[in-house]
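User: Hi! I'm working on a homework problem where we have to compare a predicted structure to a textbook description. Could you give me the structure for the chain below?
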Amino acid sequence: MQKRDRQDVIVEEVRINRNVSSNFLARKLKVSEDTIRRDLNELDKKGLILKVHGGAVSTIQKLYHYNEDMIFNRDAKNAISKKASNLMKDGMVIIISGGTTNLMLAKQFPKDLNATVYTYSLPIAMQLSEHPSIEVIFIGGKINKKSMVTVGIDVVQLLSGIAADICFIGVSSINITNGITDEGYEVSLVKKAMIAASDKTIALADSNKLNVRQNYGVCTLGEIDTLITELDPKDHKLRNYRSKDLEIL
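Assistant: Happy to help. Predicted structure tokens:
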């Protein structure tokens, strides 16, 4: 492998994993750790990664760190995000809500995708800022410190002026009767606005969110185009959802 190609792989590994060790990179690329250290020094000088003792981290680590080991039901959310990433196409205008499932989706964006992404989630905006060809537009407003998303009338008004191709909405709870519901009133209003601004709505829900109801309505099942879970679409847990006019992945 040529030096340039090797360094491209290193940058991509750091972008996806946030931090990597020299030992891991040496084994992956089948070169010595001395070679990797020289590569890391060069990439650090170019500002593409941040070299640290024993390896490298994303430059975004200087500003923000999200402990992914603490994400609940991580394997399920990873499976969901991989399914969702297949729905993206070049040239799309995308809105993506907050939540850890969508944070993992942000990591799965195809590296050659050219698109514009609006989000009111600070962690997701920072994750996508590392993507080489995504235009990221962060929707500012009052920050909900618990979930690190912006809420309020400013966010709703900005969303109302967007004409998006698709939105990916993180689901706190969903059931047949009430559709998607949320635990927070302000977040529910923002999610309503993003659905109204999009031609197609994709709901991302791991299976423990199914058949649950929370206090504030977001949308009915009829307003959702596609429901993505980690389950096989034919799983018995999705039987009632299959009876609706709803694509299930």
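For your comparison, note the following. The chain has a mean pLDDT of 88. Residues 49 and 59 are 5 Å apart (CA to CA). Good luck with the assignment!
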